[in-house]
Amino acid sequence: MSFTIVTNNKKVFNLFKETDDVVFLENENICRVLAEVYKCILKGHKLLSDPIIYNIENSSNPFKTIIVSQDFTTENNISLNLIRGALNIGKKLPDISIENIPEETLEEYKFIDLSLLTNSIKELKNLNL
């Protein structure tokens, strides 16, 4: 299955821009990433990665990457419900200003997000999606 990566993480964008379809939301917050994914779901795409769970565990990380299908489906109610729930949760998370975070910490956050993405892609390949 082909997919699109939606991210606000420049490290993810730089690594995948040559080989995959990437929507890069530079300098945008997590809620903006979730809103962009919501637009994709409304168009008929399907969520292929969890839109929020790791942010609850690591709510100070300002970077978020989500995978959606490139294919369209008429049966994406589960994806729609998940992204709506993620948007509601995202609104409750603290708004994080990256200007207040040391560069070293930002790089760690980018790496964590990238690592979660690569694990999700491996899972998708193992499932032949």
Give a quick precis of the structure:
With 129 residues, the protein is mainly alpha-helical. The chain has helices at residues 10-16, 30-43, 53-57, 77-92, 103-126; strands at 3-7, 21-24, 65-69.
Highlighted features:
129 residues, mainly alpha, 3-stranded mixed sheet, 51% helix
Structure overview:
The chain has 129 residues and is mainly α. It is 51% helix and 11% strand. It has 5 helices and 3 strands. Helix 1 links the parallel strand 1 (3-7) and strand 2 (21-24). The chain starts with a strand and ends with a helix.
Unreliably modeled segments: none
Proportion of residues in extended strands? 5-15%
Helix content: 40-55%
Gyration radius, rounded? 14 Å
Tell me the major beta sheet. Answer: 3 strands, mixed
The number of helical elements comes to 5
Separation, N- and C-terminal Cα atoms: 5 Å
Average pLDDT: 90
Order of helices and strands: EHEHHEHH
Question: Can you tell me the overall shape?
Answer: globular
Number of strands: 3
The strand line-up of the biggest sheet is 2-1-3
Q: What structural category arises from helix and sheet content?
A: mainly alpha
